[in-house]
């Protein structure tokens, strides 16, 4: 089964009806039939943080959608671990010339560990690590 990593960029575009990337995210979703989506606790944390001050409506949508993602059997949520956090710090430190967030580093490590080569994002940082972005 094809595994695709879902970055916060993708989830935010799906949740926010006014997001400029929403149409592309919805189009990409149609092509995911038969695929397995992988994301992380850290990505979902980043999504909810993004909507923290977006007003009650968007904040509630984000919570509802995050819960739906957690219950979706086609989405694997990779839980954080202390070891992966330490590995991400090392990765973050080794990429001094990049603008990667720590969450991106964790995501890239998960992709590498699981042999995932495609990411639902528009963040070119993933391309810099040899991954294909789908938005």
List the helices and strands and how they pair.
Layout: E1 2-6, H1 8-15, H2 22-30, E2 35-40, H3 41-50, H4 56-71, E3 75-78, H5 82-94, H6 102-114, E4 118-120, H7 125-128, E5 132-133
Helix pairs in contact: 1-2, 1-3, 5-6
Structural summary, described in words:
This protein is α/β, with parallel strands linked by helices and 135 residues long. It has a single domain, classed as 5'-nuclease (Rossmann fold, 3-Layer(aba) Sandwich), CATH 3.40.50. 54% of the residues lie in helices and 15% in strands. The protein has a five-stranded parallel β-sheet with strand order 3-2-1-4-5. Helix 7 links the parallel strand 4 and strand 5. Helix 1 packs across helix 2, helix 1 (8-15) crosses helix 3 and helix 5 (82-94) crosses helix 6 (102-114). The chain is globular. The model has no long low-confidence stretch (mean pLDDT 96).
